[in-house]
Amino acid sequence: MDELQPTEALRGRSEPEAEPEPQSVNRFISVPFADWDSNTMSTEIEIFIEESGLSDYSDYIRRGAYLAQDKNAFPRNRPRPDGLKLREDKDERKYLDLEYSSRPIDRFNQPWRLYALVVCCSLGAAVQGWDETAINGAQIFYQKALGIEGRVGLIGLVNSAPYLCCAISCWLNYPLNKVLGRRGVIFLTCIISSVTCLGQAFPRTWYQLFIARLLLGLGIGPKSATIPIYAAECAPANIRGALVMMWQMWTAFGLMCGYISGVVLRNVNSGNEGTCDQDRSSPDHLLSSYCSLNWRLMLASPMVLPLFVVAYIYTMPESPRFLLRKARNGDKKKYEEAFNALCSLRYTKLQAARDMFLIHHLLKGEERIMAQQQPFRELFSIGRNRRALGAAVITMFFQQFCGVNVMAYYSSSVLVDNADFSQYKALLASMGFGIINFLFAIPAIWTIDTFGRRNLLLSTFPFMALFQGFLAIGFAFDGTTGTVLIMLGMYLFSIAYSPGEGPVPFVYSAECLPLYNRDFGMGIVTSINWFFNFFLAITWPKFLAAFGASGAFAWYAGWCVAGWWIILLFLPETKDLTLEQLDEVFEISTREHARHGMDQLVWWVRRWILKQKGWRKPVLIQSKIDEGYEIGGEEKYARRPIGEMIEDS
């Protein structure tokens, strides 16, 4: 008889494990060993120690594995039968208590190395925001300098060029990450951003500027998909939502920097007397006054920030999940590298071992499912996945069609051409919009996990529509009345947008899809977001010329109204839900959820408008534990009849 392989000897059998049932696919990934008995758990721990070669850390791995299975694996009042216990000399109890503390602030008590990584990711996000809004002030000047003033089609094409490239380059995210890793992709894309921003300072014609901006999209697209993933894979679960949300908040910071650079650089040799077609015989023609230094410096200004990320990124640990995937593909040295990376991002080796054991088995489950199924096709063929993908697309679509990037890219030129603002006042007004956008994104760090994703959108979209209406009316008036309405509309819209439709789309999209096809789904929704970003940027100049500023902003006010209804009917809430609970939510039919949304609206009108007390809020899913009983000792979820409105006695 042939000698058994080590893993088979430990299991005592060589038969392949049973394939998971289709309906339990996501449960297998979300809690891969929740139902294992002590013998199975002990066997699997020994297998992992042998496979990984981490025998020097076997004590941490054994205890961490039990902690991954049950957070209460080490009770205070009684010893474990196997003798395993927490080490007081390493303060393990102290740091575990911080993780599960009832005080929200305790969750943010994390090692400095984790926050250094967050700073690096935040700088990368700020790079993107600055890349996007550098064009806002520059377009006031480059139109005349390059001889395309009034040619709205060319202006829209130049401004939208990076986002056309982003819609395509997002699809490079998966192969680039597979080859270069998370840090490698961030390093490469920041190099591209810096070089192409510098390239935007030297064009002599509009099509040279178009090419430079098109290539800039290679630096924006993959980075926009990689940095949130990198942060999520390195962060502990209890603050993952807040750290992933940092992407949007610091993108808003970068947007603000772009507006500020427009104000600061506006008077640097504007050269509005001529165009680049003049004085071609001059040896310094390229940077002559006719070619305008101010807009060139505005477009080049984002080039410095990515260089800090480039210098900084390789001082950070690689994503432990990426390293473990490489280890499972044959590079056994990556096991220890992954463990060391987790040790630098957690307070104790016990926490690092727990997270490593969990990630290892999550990857194991994903590999089994990937071998049995076709994740890309099943995004559309399985109802749960199709509804989740549709909900993510809704959030991404309305992030663009609420009209925010009209202001991000065109506010300065619109104010100059349609509201008789001076160049300086237009740039100042745009800078105010950017500052407000950043400041009011900060509260979302708390509200996105407390108030909820769907609730944030439903409570902010009506105000976004109202304030877009202010803009539409303001542009129809002359003088002080029009100016006041325009400024109110811009700033109040920014206040409403920043905590809602700003951060929600990327957070929502990252969590609603099941793990085994999340990469494919994120590729689709991110590409859709950038495509509509491109669509809005390229069509706005012609749209503005055809309908005027009032009609154009009224159009986007209408989309905000439509967005509110679509979110009410078709967007489930995902706050505080585990993967298993998300499966329950998205398995509910679209028709059933739409009816629940209408029942919520009826309840809200009766309760808060008509002041009719005694109506119970409709509940989509209710825990049976809340009703006073359990099934098999495990929490189960049952649907309460949709639209149930029971009068309180």
Automatic annotation (TrEMBL):
<dbReference type="InterPro" id="IPR036259">
    <property type="entry name" value="MFS_trans_sf"/>
</dbReference>
<dbReference type="InterPro" id="IPR003663">
    <property type="entry name" value="Sugar/inositol_transpt"/>
</dbReference>
<dbReference type="GO" id="GO:0015798">
    <property type="term" value="P:myo-inositol transport"/>
</dbReference>
<dbReference type="GO" id="GO:0015791">
    <property type="term" value="P:polyol transmembrane transport"/>
</dbReference>
<keyword id="KW-0762">Sugar transport</keyword>
<dbReference type="Pfam" id="PF00083">
    <property type="entry name" value="Sugar_tr"/>
</dbReference>
<dbReference type="InterPro" id="IPR050814">
    <property type="entry name" value="Myo-inositol_Transporter"/>
</dbReference>
<keyword id="KW-0812">Transmembrane</keyword>
<feature type="transmembrane region" description="Helical">
    <location>
        <begin position="209"/>
        <end position="231"/>
    </location>
</feature>
<keyword id="KW-0472">Membrane</keyword>
<feature type="transmembrane region" description="Helical">
    <location>
        <begin position="295"/>
        <end position="315"/>
    </location>
</feature>
<feature type="transmembrane region" description="Helical">
    <location>
        <begin position="150"/>
        <end position="172"/>
    </location>
</feature>
<keyword id="KW-1133">Transmembrane helix</keyword>
<feature type="transmembrane region" description="Helical">
    <location>
        <begin position="243"/>
        <end position="265"/>
    </location>
</feature>
<feature type="region of interest" description="Disordered">
    <location>
        <begin position="1"/>
        <end position="24"/>
    </location>
</feature>
<comment type="similarity">
    <text>Belongs to the major facilitator superfamily. Sugar transporter (TC 2.A.1.1) family.</text>
</comment>
<feature type="domain" description="Major facilitator superfamily (MFS) profile">
    <location>
        <begin position="117"/>
        <end position="575"/>
    </location>
</feature>
<feature type="transmembrane region" description="Helical">
    <location>
        <begin position="483"/>
        <end position="500"/>
    </location>
</feature>
<protein>
    <submittedName>
        <fullName>Sugar transporter family protein</fullName>
    </submittedName>
</protein>
<feature type="transmembrane region" description="Helical">
    <location>
        <begin position="552"/>
        <end position="571"/>
    </location>
</feature>
<dbReference type="GO" id="GO:0016020">
    <property type="term" value="C:membrane"/>
</dbReference>
<feature type="transmembrane region" description="Helical">
    <location>
        <begin position="388"/>
        <end position="410"/>
    </location>
</feature>
<dbReference type="InterPro" id="IPR005828">
    <property type="entry name" value="MFS_sugar_transport-like"/>
</dbReference>
<feature type="transmembrane region" description="Helical">
    <location>
        <begin position="520"/>
        <end position="540"/>
    </location>
</feature>
<dbReference type="InterPro" id="IPR020846">
    <property type="entry name" value="MFS_dom"/>
</dbReference>
<feature type="transmembrane region" description="Helical">
    <location>
        <begin position="184"/>
        <end position="203"/>
    </location>
</feature>
<dbReference type="GO" id="GO:0022857">
    <property type="term" value="F:transmembrane transporter activity"/>
</dbReference>
<feature type="transmembrane region" description="Helical">
    <location>
        <begin position="455"/>
        <end position="477"/>
    </location>
</feature>
<feature type="transmembrane region" description="Helical">
    <location>
        <begin position="426"/>
        <end position="448"/>
    </location>
</feature>
<keyword id="KW-0813">Transport</keyword>
